[in-house]
Amino acid sequence: MTLTGLIILLVVAALCGIAGQLLAGYSLGGLVISVVVGFAGAWLGVWIARTFDLPRFITMDIDGRSFPIVWSVAGSALLAAAVGLLRRPRSS
């Protein structure tokens, strides 16, 4: 992977992570965390899509590798929502 491809991949992952966090209504942190959430969301989203035999659509080819935009945003939203539910203060 070239340096340009890596930078584009990081930017796309960050945007997917930010979009997922916005959909979930819970922010996990700043830009670096958004990149991590974007990559983790891509992994989670693709795993869910494969498990339920869902189609892979709206992907972006970056340096010959396919990055699933929709599943990354969906997985990021699920991840942010789960963390948001776990980190919410409990009322007694």
Structure description:
Strand 1 (59-62) and strand 2 (65-68) form a beta hairpin. Helix content is 67%, strand content 9%. It has a domain at 14-75. It has helices at residues 3-24, 31-51, 69-87; strands at residues 59-62, 65-68. The chain has 92 residues and is mostly helical. The longest helix is centred in the N-terminal third of the chain and has 22 residues, at 3-24. The chain is flat and about 50 Å long. The mean pLDDT is 85. It starts with a helix and ends in a 5-residue tail after the last helix.
List the helices and strands and how they pair.
Blueprint lengths: L2 H22 L6 H21 L7 E4 L2 E4 H19 L5
Antiparallel strand pairs: 1-2
Helix pairs in contact: 1-2, 1-3, 2-3
Give a concise summary.
With 92 residues, the protein is mainly α. It has helices at 3-24, 31-51, 69-87, and strands at 59-62, 65-68. Helix 1 (3-24) packs across helix 2 (31-51) and helix 2 (31-51) crosses helix 3.
Strand content: 5-15%
Form type: flat
Mean pLDDT: 85
Number of strands: 2
> Helical region count?
3
With strands numbered from the N-terminus, the spatial order across the biggest sheet is 1-2
Task: Give the % helix.
Answer: 55-70%
